[in-house]
TrEMBL record:
InterPro entries attached to this UniProt entry: DHFR-like_dom_sf, RibDG_C, Riboflavin_Biosynth_HTPR
Gene3D superfamilies named in the record: Dihydrofolate Reductase, subunit A
GO molecular function: 5-amino-6-(5-phosphoribosylamino)uracil reductase activity
Listed GO biological process terms: riboflavin biosynthetic process
One Pfam family from the record: RibD_C
Limits of the Bacterial bifunctional deaminase-reductase C-terminal domain: 2-183
Protein name per its UniProtKB record: Dihydrofolate reductase family protein
Amino acid sequence: MKVVLTEFVTLDGVSQGPGSPTEDTTDGFTRGGWLVPYIDEMFVRRTAEWLQRADGLLLGRRTYDAFARDWPQITDPDDPYTATMNALPKYVVSTTLTEGAWHPTTVVRSIADVEQLKQQPGAELQIHSSARLGNALLKAGLVDQVRLAVAPTVIGAGRRLFEHPGDAAGLRLTSQDATPSGLLLLEYETVGAAPVAEYEGVTAFV
């Protein structure tokens, strides 16, 4: 399976609390809910399509606990995400959790265990939220694709997606789109180390 990091971020890279001011108030964060004003039909359709590609969810402990609390409570039969989220196999990376209440759940202990999961047949093992886990796996070279929905807002506070220490990673843009509300929907493939070069003038590129 491919490991795919799927995240909602602001223009200044914040991934914390996209859905509600009370979704994640860790470290006193009060500026959540920044994605909601930009949700439109195209965003829902495309992100639902992304989710349909998953054969499993790979989550950190904090995200898993929040998702396990909230997703089973959604009963709207027309919600395009709920049935899939609740039915997919969940893999939670944790050294303290012994079992999960959001079935079906498997607890994995280490990055080495994730590497073994990648060897299983299937299309995609998707990371949703779980920025620290995503960063650790990107550093370990285990992330194959990155999908971002970028909101046209700068909020100036909160936990950023790629703020954790790690090696420089190169990405290749494979798909780009903009929704009517202004969200950018971007898909990248990882290409190993980030390339660098020294600028030698415009003529070097033409």
